[in-house]
């Protein structure tokens, strides 16, 4: 019997990233309600949570600087969006493990780095759409960051997204029990 070795499977890095991204794109297209939900969540948090509490607090004093509560809440909502994308990535990677797609991709020559970048492409795309929607709503309410500040926020958030996506990947690759995974994810959400 011929021995199968995934290291003998040669593939182009960019091609591997596109293949994994395409699978994620197809999953996204087949799950449109998830996209709508991910766009609605930051809107609802901002409209109902942030504006409701902003009428009570008005401004937050931090290190002798007054910060409008809507700007303060904007950054918190970004954190919730990043966490939501991380938990979604954990779900997608666990599906790959469960159905043997992760092993199949590795066998076909997809490197771990190409897999990570491909898996991250559409969560990052969704995240940028969510950020844009959130910023547009904050402009409508008049308590928004300047465009330069928003770009800095986006860049910092992308770094944060990459970090949490990596943590989610480690969790999903190391933990096989759904109960343990949920316990870890809920514990990470507490701080």
How would you portray this structure in words?
This protein has 191 residues and is mainly alpha-helical. 79% of the residues lie in helices and 4% in strands. The protein contains seven helices and two strands. It has helices spanning 13-29, 32-57, 69-98, 101-107, 112-141, 147-174, 178-189; strands at 59-62, 65-68. The chain has a two-stranded antiparallel sheet with strand order 1-2. α2 packs antiparallel against α3, α2 crosses α5 (112-141) and α3 packs antiparallel against α5. The longest helix is centred in the middle third of the chain and has 30 residues, at 69-98. The protein is elongated.
Structural class: mainly alpha
Please compute the radius of gyration using only Cα atoms.
20 Å
Total helix count?
7
Q: What gross morphology would you assign?
A: elongated
Helix and strand string, N-terminal first?
A: HHEEHHHHH
The count of strands amounts to 2
